[in-house]
## 1
Amino acid sequence: MGSIAAQLFSGLSRDIKSGSSLGSVNVDLQTDATLQVDISDALSERDKVKFTVHTKSTLPNFKQNEFSVVRQHEEFIWLHDSFVENEEYAGYIIPPAPPRPDFDASREKLQKLGEGEGSMTKEEFTKMKQELEAEYLAIFKKTVAMHEVFLCRVAAHPVLRKDMNFHVFLEYNQDLSVRGKNKREKMEDFFKNVVKSADGVLVAGVKDVDDFFEHEKTFLLEYHNRVKDASSKSDRMIRSHKSKSPHCLIISTCLGKFFLKVSELFEKTRKIEARVAADEDLKLADLLKYYLRESQAAKDLLYRRGRALVDYENANKALDKARAKNKDVLQAETSQQVCCQKFEKISESAKQELIDFKTRRVAAFRKNLVELAELELKHAKGNLQLLQSCVGVLKGDT
Amino acid sequence: MATSSERSPPPFPEDLEPEPDEVGDQDSDDGEDIFLGTDNPLEIKMDPSLSASDITSSTKPLSEASSPPVMDLLSEPASEASSAPMVDLLMEPASEGSSAPMVDLLMEPASEASSAPMMNLLMEPASEASSAPMMNLLMEPASDDLKEPPKPDIDPLADIINDTPLSEGKTPVAAMPQEPPSDLFDDEPSELFAEPRQSNTAKQQQTSIFDEPDEDLFSEPLGEASKKPQNDFFKEALAPVAKASNVCGPLSDNYNEQPTDIFTEEAITTLPSAVSTVSVNSKTNGVHSDEEEPDIFAEATVELSLDSPRNDRKKKEAAKPSASASAPAPSVSASASKPQPKTLEEVQYITLEEEVEDKFELNISITNPEKVGDGMNAYMAYKVSTQTTLPMFRSKTFTVRRRFSDFLGLYEKLSDKHTLNGYIVPPPPEKSIMGMTKVKVGKEDNSSAEFVERRRAALERYLQRVVFHPSLLQDPDVREFLERDDMPRAHNTQALSGAGFLKMINRATDSLSKMTIKMNESDVWFEEKLQEVEAEDQQLRKLHIMVDSLVGHRKELSVNTGGFAKSVAMLGSSEDNTALSRALSQLAEVEDKMEQLHQEQAASDSFCFAELLADYIRLLGSVRASFDQRMKTWQRWQDAQNMLQKKRETEAKLLWANKPDKLQQAKDDITEWEAKVTQYERDFDRVSATVRKEVLRFEKEKARDFKKQIIKYLESLLQSQQQLIKYWEAFLPEAKAIA
């Protein structure tokens, strides 16, 4: 990457220091004064982002009431994985992990811009650069928001908030020295996933005893697919919406030679269009993406429950067998007991979780759709006004 | 004596301008051949000699004596006028009795001998043969007929006169272009006479006889006349073009009158020259003519443009009676009265052109594209309907059917005629083999319908541009195109025909020669404008590409929005919560409408905006072509000057080597090339002025066009935004209803 790129990124990391406390949290969370977590600051360095996690708490297990630590994306992932791996939490929807900060796209664009520097006018170049900076900033903010949402969900969860790992994550002011998974672990993960999905198909085939869960299962399977589809489509729509704007930009600079007023108009409408695209991105695409992950988490929960159910049934069978043979009855009985307990526990909490999930989802959709509509209206009206005034001016000066 | 003297000089002072008209005249009127004439002098030389010989063939004995003078005389005005006018000129005096005026004229110079240099010439041709370049012309013939005294000179004239009625009867048009010859003689004498004399009389005369050109010249650009002499000059010159064509028929007799004077003048010069001995004159010739000619023209130009038009009008009034005192009086006054309405009309054109809010008297629309025929021979025919209040058309509304190649044919004709003069001829839309083949082969699908509509709109704009151009509107081909029911099929417009190939080669050589011409630009304005045009061209091209890709992106956006709408609908259908499900299906509907909106917007992007840009990219090509034309004329002028220089050198060499037989040939060459140089210079000036005017007009038009289209475009944007607001407003309560 050229020197411009480096300069741009270093410039950005300075810009962003104060750009964190985002109001656009996607999910509806019941706020609780006893534990409040937010990301007060974030710093972009080359290929990693450092988040400053700020905690305010009255809980007795924390040494202080208010403190901050610096965390990286990998540490968030570690926290998430530790939840997933903990059997205790099998009955809960684990808040989906935040997506990896992805600046590759805008880096690539920046590189292209650097290469094309000679072929465009200075004016165009600076405008393009500004554009890219804005785009980069938007991605950055989004990333921060996603991480914040994850922490907030955990902090708001009645069980998860009491997790030790979580507390360490919040309080320990040194590097947690978590490392990314190495190749072997990744392979293991991969196999686990394959086994899990194969198992998932098996488990899904099992008829559930509970109508509620049966219904939820079919719904979630369908819903997940639909959300996935909608999210990819919306992404594409927004991408094409965004890709329009650099063209408008060049048109406006070209037009500048002819009609100052119209060029101005183009410039302004372009900005509005860009805002529309950004807002659609934020309100619609992010919502869908979040629910894509959330529904995946819910599916995982159902899988775990299904697994537990199958285990329970197997344990029952084993107990029957043992009884018939009158051998190891006690052992079979205890394992059956354990499975039963586990299943019961999961079922109980899962039911509550799924109901919560539903209400959360409806509320989130409502909030976002209303906001989307309002923003679209606002931008359209602004655009309309601009156009009207421009047409007025053009018609006026004959 | 006094009257005759008044009568004779008048024609001159004027005549510089009519000339440019003349060319235009002939263009618009009838003249391929005349056109050729302007192009290359060689052809012209042929013409006069031919006609002269024709004429003289009947007058057997004197043919030798008479033809050379005619030829020589013609050699100068050659490019502007065919020989016919000359003949007409000669005819008039004959009817009056050729000898009488001549005598008068001869007397008159004598009386004023002291003041006018011309007179000096006549008195002592031997000693001072110098001053007038025209003398050269006259000298040479004289040398040929040295042995034969003046008499033969007169005789052939008389004979010719007897013959000419025939030619006149055949072509009334021929009577028209008499001015150029007069011009030849006028310029100089006007200077010569006008200065020493009281300018008053000179001006009076000039106005009285040349009232038509006068009116044109001064009536329109009243205010401007004094500011920019050069420029005006040619602006005015343009105006008569239109007018002259109107005038030609009814006023031919009027023109016949004028020449009498011209001729008399000419007669004066021929006679003395014949008398004078050649030997003395020959040496001074070259030098003098060289210096004098340009001077004279320059002065004449200045003088004319400085004349205040008001004065002229008054003087014209005063002059009328005086004119009527002499023989040609009635016809002159008739001509004075007739042109009046014509001029009014002309003023209208000018205002039409100058005011931006025009009262458009001509409305053209193209409708009903219809496929005619089948297979590869199929073509689209368009209905061209015209609504007009212009008197030049036969009726107020008429409709014709034209096919695309007819439009191309019209353009070919127009550009052949007008590009040479520096006009910007609006180009038609390009041939599109791809698009047309699709239409020919394809069924009625979306893209071919769009193609036809796009082409129809482009053709309409093209025709409107043509008729909006005041000079092109006057072109008979345009009228024919609009009015005539059965149009002969235009040839050579096929993209892949042999003619097309030839055209391509021509274009290639043109661009090659363009590169080789290094013009040292004397006029900063042109230099700047050319650069401006080129920069603009580039900008427009870039803009066009961008708008195209914008259209592409909008289409993509529309498709993607459609896809999203569908998947949202699916999501809605699988949603548990009924209110949310409802809201989602509403959202799907909104997105569906947005898809439509984006599609419409993409269409208006390309129709309003991209097409406008494409049009102007083509138009800028024409603008550049007119700049190139100016450069070519300049090049021709320079070449002629170089040639003249060479001829002079050879003459000097010959003189030094003392070879009298070849010397004569050299002198002939020199006079010929001198004439050409002047001619080309004038051509260049004329083309420059036309180009300048055309470019200004083009810019005005462009600004207006852009404004109109952009407003239209913005309005379409406005509408789609309004729609958008409506859709989202409808959606908002649905979103809020989710509980």
## 2
Amino acid sequence: QYFLLVNQFSIQAATVPKIPAALNRGLMDPGMTECQYSQISTVASSPMESQLGKKIPKRKWQTFPGRNKFYCNGRIMMGRQTGVFYLTLVLIVVTSGLFFAFDCPFLAYSLSPAIPAIGAFLFLFVMGMLLRASFSDPGVLPRATPDEAAHLEYGINSPGSGGCRSPPRTQEVVINGQTVKLKYCFTCKIFRPPRASHCSLCDNCVERFDHHCPWVGNCVGKRNYRYFYLFILSLSFLTIFIFAFVITHIVLRSNQTGFLSALKDSPLLNHSDTVLEVVVCFFSMWSIVGLSGFHTYLIGSNQTTNEDIKGLWSSKRGKGNYNPYSYSSVITNCCAALCGPLPPSLIDRRGFIQPDTPQTLCFGNSLVSLRADCDEADDLLFFFFLLHPSLLPVSLASWPFSHDSCLPLCVPHSRSCSHLSTPSALVLESSL
Amino acid sequence: MAETHSLQDIRQQASVAAKVFIQRDYTNGTMCQFQTKFPSELESRIDKQQFEETLRMLNNLYAEAEKLGGQSYVEGCLACLTAYTIFLCMETHYEKVLKKIAKYIQEQNDKIYAPRGLLLTDPIERGLRVVEITIFEDRSTGSGR
């Protein structure tokens, strides 16, 4: 069967004018016949690797299907638009910098040196929390492997039918007495767990999705909610602190020398800095303190911003409507949100891609995993798919179809391959 | 009756016949728990009791990882006070339990599942969505071409 496969391909290759170099190298390699003939090995070192030469093992973040940016070789993960995040950083650093440079010396001398010390601690805490909230994985759910997706698509309850049926859009589950609907995510090909939501900006399903925060440059979800909350809480303290002490500074100076001369005597630079600090702090104070208050309420009632906005658990929806996730007391809710166990990242950004597991690098692996029990007709279908110019990926990491278009190729062998959807249908599906 | 295979044998020689996915059980909320219902595809391969025992143990381990109690609060507060820098040198409780789970699954595979031509995949490799059980072809019945 495999020999037949290679022969068909060579016929196809002769008729198609262009094949990208990477694909060509992988498929036309003379050693391919040998490794295709051998059975599937789950051992990492497959013959294909050594014959293709120096193949640098890729880390999983390099082929991550979501719209995220990765830095430091996968250690740092952020959302796509990071411009506003840099604005946040600049605002905080500049305002605090001005405070430490121009107000602190006076205050340390005339009041107490504890003021700059507390200020410094607050500033470092704010920066630490901001960076943690921005750089960590919010709780992204990895997309379904082709086997799982196929299992869902072909019907969970009718494994023998082999019929190609799209999965039901919702599943109902009773959680602590409340009926909750689990929605099917067409992009990630999974039924979203309760409280999870798909972020359209990052193109990922995120667990306990709160909201996508542009100021932080990342989604706020299960794993970084506490950092986000501590960030806004400490930032409110910092803004109030700076605002209060800048005003104190002006008041004290004016007491010493008279108000107008306090403003006149100090060099122009000082004056404008003070004004800048006061303005920034005043305007941001209201929004940040307000936001902290809002999130304190959310934590106490164990809801996400998403749920609160939709009014999912509000009593207005019905008499028996209550939040099934809330613990018995407000204190338990707070402790759970802030001091609960920290779940690990599910996407394993820095792990190496195993050559045998069907992940996003489908085009390379699918040939090795293509089964001998597929019909001839399906082999032709596969090659049409592979060689159709519009489906050839420019770069596997960014092409939206590269992951989904491999789906029929990695279908478990117990199912007949003749039930694969046509290329056009699959393209439509992956564009959802 | 199925031939007995060792885990190495399975990985190197057998071919995959089917995969069974055990889904999550959300009846107690968002805690990581898996359904203990015995799938029909495994009826010929493994004892129902054994399978349910494995899953029950897994569920207990995950519950232990996510437990809200004195230890997790202490860890959380300490971490907060050190601005989470403590996790640069220390593993979280959850990670420790995940290692325990990985060891347990490895042990179950070696002792119980591999000799029956089955392989349990650690749920963490599937994003804690499913427990994937790979059913390998029975060499005695043979279905290769």
